[in-house]
Amino acid sequence: MSRAGLSARWVRGRWSQGLVGAATFLTVIPMPIQKTPAPLARCLPWFPLVGAALGLALGGLGLVLDRLLPPGPVAALLLGAYIIATGALHLDGLMDSADGVFGGRTPERRRAIMRDSRVGAFGVLAGVLSLLTQYACLTEVSGVERLRVLVATLAAGRWAMTLALGFFPSAQPDGVGAAMKSGVTVRLVIGATATASIVALATGGFGAIAMLIAAIVAIGGGRFLTRRVEGLTGDAYGAVDVIAETTCLLAALVAPHAGRS
Questions:
Q1: Would you give the distance in Å from CA 163 to the centre of its chain?
Q2: DSSP secondary structure letter of residue 124
Q3: In whole angstroms, what separates CA 137 from the centre of its chain?
């Protein structure tokens, strides 16, 4: 095989490993088994694309359900499908982060609470409030506009995670969050930004709004969490994602025509 052929094969291998690795980590959808899985950090450029794919699938499901059910049940079923597809990964991070940040008095105690698998009052309240807000927003948008909003929102939420990973230190030496942080480079964050920007262009004006919101949440939320727990954890990255998505859905109601081209 020529050098050009070997180079193309190597690029395709890294591309597929990163994409499949991102989908495997962010969803419970079965993926092709790879003999040499990509390091977790190498998957970051594909995080926004996986979010966009989830948004496209949910938006398509919504188009079907719109023909059968009123807005309330459709919104509930879409949220249920989203939670099942992601294994409630980021929602769990939000609840654990809320318990730790508001339930402890010192950074050490807050980190210990976040590592506890049990959910406390603050976690329940944070989870319920985020789901209620998302549900209320999804009842107000429908059709192709909802599809575009979901694609932009879910891509932006996962891009917010990559920004938080790039800008803030890890709060602990082990765990999934620390494993991702240890391999993060500027090039990987730029790659994720490029992917998110392509999705934003494809979704029209609302895509740019979603990216702006995601950046504000990632930097503002990252600074707040870093002050409270002296860095970020895997739970904190999940919290950033959920807060960014919820804020984007609220923005879609404030600018209801932003999702249309």
A1: 11
A2: H
A3: 18
Q: Is 3 buried (19+), middle (13-18) or exposed (0-12) by CB count in 10 A?
A: exposed
pTM for this entry = 0.87
Quick count: other Cβ atoms within 10 Å of Cβ 34?
Answer: 13
pLDDT digits 0-9 by tens, 159-191: 999 999 989 888 777 767 777 777 788 899 999
Q: Where do the domains of the chain lie?
A: 41-254
CB count within 10 Å of CB 253 equals 13
> Each residue of 201-234: pLDDT tens digit?
999 889 999 999 999 999 999 999 998 888 888 8
Distance CA 145, CA 159 (A): 21
Of the candidates 258, 241, 219, 252, the residue with the CA atom closest to the CA atom of residue 48? 241
Spatial distance between the Cα atoms of 256 and 259, rounded to a whole number of angstroms: 7
Q: Which residues contact 251 (CB under 8 A, 6 or more apart)?
A: 206, 209, 210, 213, 258
